[in-house]
Amino acid sequence: MALTGTRFDIDLSSDDENTPPEPQQELQQAQPLNILSFGTVGVVKERVPSGPATAPTLANSASGFPAHKKRSRISTFKRQRAAPPTQPRSNADGTATTTAASLQPDQTIVSAFTPLINGSSRDEVPAKSFEELEKQRIDEENKKQLASMSDEEIAHERQELLAGLSPSLLERLLKRANLDDGRADTGVEMGTDHDQDVGATIAESPAVPGPPPASQPAPPDPDAEPILPPPDLAPASSTSLPPPQPKIHFPAPPTPPTLDPSSPTFLTTLHEKYFPTLPTDPSKLAWMAPLPSTSAASSYSPSHPALPASALRFDFNGRLLPPRTALDIPVTKGLHHHGDAPEAAGYTIPELARLARSAFPAQRCVAFQTLGRILYRLGKGEWGPEGSEMAMGLWRCVAEGRVLEGLQEAVEREKHLSAKSYAVEAIWNWQQGGGQLWKAG
Question: 0.70 exceeded by the pTM?
């Protein structure tokens, strides 16, 4: 699609704007330019500078910031604040004309709709607020309602209203009543004629005398008969008093006994105080029982003439602990536990065999390490030569507890790295001590 355009010429040789254009140029300027063909609206014209350009100079300030420039022209907002309020315009007859801007919003609405309500012109009705009109409408409705009711109906409604209100609320309403206007605090002004009539009536009415001042009480007459009590009045001491009311008594719960951890009945007292309704099993709390005070009551006591090999106790290094030494070792060494003899320190071979199958890796590590050191000392003949009663008893405990099979299984299947390392160390110690399998038979 071809676009039609108008051909024109531009003379760029003249820079003088005051030179009148030629007739041909006036015709071209009068014709509308096609924006699509030209692409610009005005003409860009270069001007010859009057002199060399100079850089702007900044005023030196002591603080390094530009100095404050005081404005000489007063702002529009300040001029509006300082201007006096606008006076209402006066008509030709001298009456003031109120504009819509000088009225409040509610007065503007009322002044616009008042002529339509009363049927009169806008100039004859004074502007009233919406609140005043609403009060006046309610007052007129009340007057019409009272005029249509008889005296009996008015008295009945008043009695019903007063009976439904509380005395305190009624007192507050009466205090707020506007007695000068002749009704409650409605805010509606009475008519001028009515005020004049009421004022005249009050002025013509005679003054009502006030109440007489309070006089002093008359002195008693000495000749008057004495006041005697009634004959049926009995003394207070002779009258029978009503029977006393029974006192309300709430039974107090029994006081629980005081807990003493050093008492031998501590566990029983603990159960009676905190868990009286739960079943009790003394065997499950046996590990909490206090230790025997004498060594003779212990199963690992030096007073016993002989001890089986399964009752011999060892420390963490695999050394044998005699009964006297095991009872003297303090609990801070970590060798005491809830086993067959909780008062004695150390571990037996059956106890270590059970601990090697524990679900906790830390307990398995302790058992593997201690068993490896015991096997090393046993293989070296530290507790008697081969075939002796003590050595054969200890090897029998190792065989019954399947210690070597447990260590071999831990080396092959143990997933815990530390426990596996201690199991490998125990097998190596057993081999360093001799490692003969026939010793376990």
Answer: no
What are the angstrom distances between the C-alpha of 137 and each of 132, 304, 394? 9, 117, 117
Looking at residue 212, its pLDDT comes to 54
Q: Measured at the alpha carbon of residue 118, what is the angle toward residues 112 and 121, in degrees to the nearest 5?
A: 60
The DSSP result for 155-210, as a single string, is HHHHHHHHHHS-HHHHHHHHHT-BTTTTBSS--PPPPHHHHHHHHHHHHHSPPPP-
pLDDT at 235 over 50: yes
Query: What are the tokens at 133?
Result: 């009109």
The pLDDT value given to residue 419: 94
| Helix (H), strand (E) at residue 313 | strand 313-314
Residue 301 identity: S
Annotate 122-141 with DSSP letters as a single string: TTTSPP--HHHHHHHHHHHH
Residue with tokens 């106790």: 313
DSSP string, 249-264: --PPPPPPPPP-TTST
Count CB-CB contacts under 10 A for residue 292. Answer: 14
How many residues are given for the chain? 441
| pLDDT confidence bin for 17, thresholds 50/70/90 | low
Could you identify the residue written with the tokens 């409705």?
141
- Select from 287, 424, 407 the least CA-distant residue to 357: 407
Other Cβ atoms less than 10 A from the Cβ of 312: the count is 23
Lowest mean pLDDT among 75-89, 137-151, 340-354: 75-89
DSSP secondary structure string, 370-405?
Answer: HHHHHHHHHHTTTTS-TT-HHHHHHHHHHHHTTHHH
Tokens of 155: 């008295």
Check if the beta carbon of residue 440 is closer than 8 Å to that of residue 353: no
Q: How far apart are CA 372 and CA 427, in angstroms?
A: 7
Q: Is the pLDDT of residue 69 over 60?
A: yes
Alpha-carbon distance of 164 to 166, in angstroms, equals 7
DSSP-derived letter for residue 338 is S
